[in-house]
Amino acid sequence: MVGKLRDAIRDVPDFPKEGIVFKDITPILSDGELFKGAIDLICETAGGVKIDKVVGIDARGFIFGAAAADRMGVGFVPVRKKGKLPWRCSEAAYALEYGEAVVEIHEDAVKPGEKVLLVDDLLATGGTAEAALKLLGGLGAEVVCVTFLIELSFLGGREKLVPHPVAAILEY
Ligand code: AMP
Fold first, then answer.
1. For 17, which of 8, 96, 108, 113 is 20 to 30 Å away at the CA?
2. What domain range is 119 assigned to?
3. What is residue 98's predicted lDDT score, i.e. its pLDDT?
4. Catalytic residue set
5. Which residues form the pocket of ligand 1, taking CB atoms under 6 Å from any ligand atom?
């Protein structure tokens, strides 16, 4: 399955700006076997620990995170770009591989001590996931694993996420 997933990912040079090789995961989403296989592997990164909530990062983390939450029979919580969530929020600023942003979470979305699987499609510099971890730390969540479909390991983003356990299905 891992090989099939790797073969399906499409490299798009110079998107959304020059010098970025964008990893397009839509060919995985549009193939039932691959999408299911990706969700199976993401769920396995919980290592058999009983998860209370899956938290997904805006926007492709919602797709994988929500499907993983449904598969595990648990709730899903979105970490969104600033200004999208309607209720009271905590916020954290971060730098992207291409730009800067602020992410938010509803302050009552995760309860202290809840076991969380944090999911995004891709780990680049690690800034986004680091900000999401700050939000979850502020709410008192216990992060069981930070799970990515893809890790661009040459960017060293994993170091920003220490001491949390990090898992990636595909490394580049
Ligand atoms: P970072 O904060 O640098 O780890 O960036 C991770 C976020 O930006 C993820 O939500 C990804 O969806 C997106 N991203 C960054 N670089 C890429 C890339 N080369 N291909 C696809 N998505 C990317």
1. 8
2. 48-171
3. 62
4. 60, 97
5. 20-23, 57, 60, 96-97, 120-128, 157
